[in-house]
Amino acid sequence: MDSEIEQETQLTYRRQVYKEDLPQLKEQCREKHRATAMKKRERAPGNGIKLHFIHGYRGYDCRSNLFYTQTGEIVYHVAAVGVVYNRQQNTQRFYMGHDDDILCLAIHPLKDYVATGQVGRDSSVHIWDTETLKPMSVLKGFHQLGVCTLDFSADGKRLASVGLDDNHTIVLWDWRKGEKLSAMRGSKDKIFVIKINPYLPDKLITAGVKHMKFWHKVGGGLIGRKGNMGKTETMMCAVYGWSEEMVFSGTCTGDICIWRDMFLMKTVKAHDGPVFSMHALEKGFVTGGKDGIVALWDDTFERCLKTYAIKRAVLAPGSKGLLLEDNPSIRAISLGHGHILVGTKNGEILEVDKSGPITLLVQ
């Protein structure tokens, strides 16, 4: 198994101490202080500090968590903060509703709301507006330990989430009502991605360690069947294609698997090492891999139309610094506003112009 994926499959995000243990710890601390009967400070300081800018992005253990909003700003997450970055002005605005690290981010089809899922003993999903930075809905009381992946339905009404519990529980929500529509054990193996079928919202796929599963909603539950491909590889990313039965997934060995319903039609070699992120376009696909290459494909993955290597040599003059290394592992990729947006394992956010030059925005 690839070393990066191996490292990540070991991560459980379990902690000795969580934020809700704080009151108890503070109380213990106070008792210690009382014992020493320290002199109290008369009043709090008059000055405070305000968060102004966050350098970096969480790419070392997350994927496909970087998008353009409706207005062309860039939304992503780092630590417990949702960031909306304006690339023209180099300014940031923050969603600060979470109280622990965010692990995943999905964007609404209209690109005005995002959903973020966090770590925690009883972890929550927040759906918030990228303009006002106000929460529209907070989904709580279901996932233990954390939420590792999210996806909106094509009509934007439903949200699917996957927990970090031992069964990697899948929940389908009517997020505006804060209502759970159905819940199901996902798999014993870690799930890296969930996608709702854009044509048939009662169908979805999950993909992850040594599995690819095709689900459909029946009554209040979900029924899942494994895809047929002999020895199942570990899948790192997946998207639906140009019809309801076509699915494309990226493997840890650098292949793209092309599925019709649950059957593997063929595989195409796309990258050296894992394919960490892919994005479907109107007429084709874009993929990013551990090899530091961005590839543009036609709509059947038969032809690779163009590749861009992420290297210092092609950085545009306006870049805000240098790359830590050439060909960094690409963890997130998406398209919009005439550019390809790329997030790396080293915490860099780049914008690739279709003609070639690359601008480093955040690192």
Automatic annotation (TrEMBL):
The keyword Repeat applies. Keywords: Repeat, WD repeat. Residues 91-351 form the EML-like first beta-propeller domain. WD repeats lie at residues 268-298. It holds the Pfam family Beta-prop_EML. SMART domains: WD40 (SM00320). This is Echinoderm microtubule-associated protein-like 5. InterPro entries: Beta-prop_EML_1st, HELP, WD40/YVTN_repeat-like_dom_sf, WD40_repeat_dom_sf, WD40_rpt, WD_repeat_EMAP. It comes from Ilyodon furcidens (goldbreast splitfin).
